[in-house]
Design the sequence.
């Protein structure tokens, strides 16, 4: 395997000059730079990235921890983050916690050993104190951990309000709200707050159904929706806090002979691509996925550069009405 000394010998320059070319430090003539790159190419020389990161005190690596990479929302989030990270010269280390605290803790330790420049947290199974003690540049999604750690979320309250008020305006008189576990203390619970405010103001009958702590276990959604519809056959509106749950609600309504939207109207959340794959297409609340990716990278880069950042970062949402309402 070729070494930096081999590159220097072939290029006819010093090892120091090769190092300066690799790290883009100091003035190097284009002729010298070309000689070094030609030698590297001919020798198939691969620089030691860890050593280089130690030298320049920056790895150009960002960590992203999400609960389930197969979930449409987090798959799209990861894709947008990777896109904007690449635009800024960063690579992403993607970690799939599967809502397992031990895995999440192990991934955090791995990212710190890898000397990543910052971590984006989309999985939050650990105690808040553990995040506060990370001593790493950090951005969290949909969870406010402390006053000095930046978080990124959409306007969850407005999203819940738009969804619920649409169902009420369509004449729904008994609305089921299917949400994640409220024990997780997430900012997304503001959707539930808005739901309660809207139905109580309108005097509409309602029920709230929480999924289990593992809100990404899609196989359990069918049984959950089946139980809800059997126990409450007079439900005429469903507000689900993800498009995946809304799709299962649609499927279960059709299976039991309920017309959508004739008998039951359904609103989802996120506007993942799958919302348009079902029939009828899902009415949903669109989260700004592109904005999430752009802002997550921007907030970390500002911290890396030592710039002050806003700790509260909330993006707008949009109601997208389709066939289920």
Sequence:
């Amino acid at each position: 395997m070729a070494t930096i000394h081999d590159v220097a010998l072939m290029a006819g320059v010093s090892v120091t000059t090769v190092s300066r070319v690799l790290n883009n430090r100091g003035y190097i003539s284009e002729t010298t730079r070309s000689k070094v790159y030609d030698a590297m190419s001919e020798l198939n020389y691969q620089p030691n990235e860890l050593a280089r990161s130690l030298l320049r005190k920056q790895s150009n690596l960002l960590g992203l921890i999400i609960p389930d990479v197969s979930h449409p929302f987090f798959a799209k989030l990861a894709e947008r983050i990777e896109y904007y990270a690449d635009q800024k010269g960063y690579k992403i280390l993607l970690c799939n916690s599967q809502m397992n605290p031990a895995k999440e803790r192990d991934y955090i330790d791995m990212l710190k050993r890898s000397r990543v420049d910052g971590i984006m947290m989309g999985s939050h199974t650990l105690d808040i104190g553990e995040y506060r003690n990370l001593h790493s540049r950090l951005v969290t999604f949909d969870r406010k951990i402390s006053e000095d750690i930046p978080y990124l979320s959409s306007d969850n309250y407005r999203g819940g309000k738009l969804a619920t008020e649409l169902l009420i305006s369509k004449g729904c008189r008994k609305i089921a709200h299917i949400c994640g576990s409220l024990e997780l203390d997430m900012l997304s619970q503001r959707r539930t707050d808005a739901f309660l405010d809207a139905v109580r103001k309108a005097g509409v009958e309602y029920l709230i159904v929480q999924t289990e702590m593992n809100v990404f276990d899609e196989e359990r959604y069918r049984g959950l929706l089946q139980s809800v519809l059997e126990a409450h056959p007079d439900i005429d509106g469903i507000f689900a806090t993800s498009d995946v749950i809304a799709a299962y609600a649609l499927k279960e309504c059709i299976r039991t002979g309920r017309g959508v939207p004739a008998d039951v109207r359904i609103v989802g959340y996120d506007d993942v691509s799958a919302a348009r794959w079902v029939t009828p297409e899902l009415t949903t609340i669109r989260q700004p996925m592109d904005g999430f990716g752009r802002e997550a990278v921007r907030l970390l880069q500002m911290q890396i550069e030592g710039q002050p950042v806003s700790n509260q970062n909330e993006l707008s949402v949009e109601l997208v009405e389709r066939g289920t309402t």
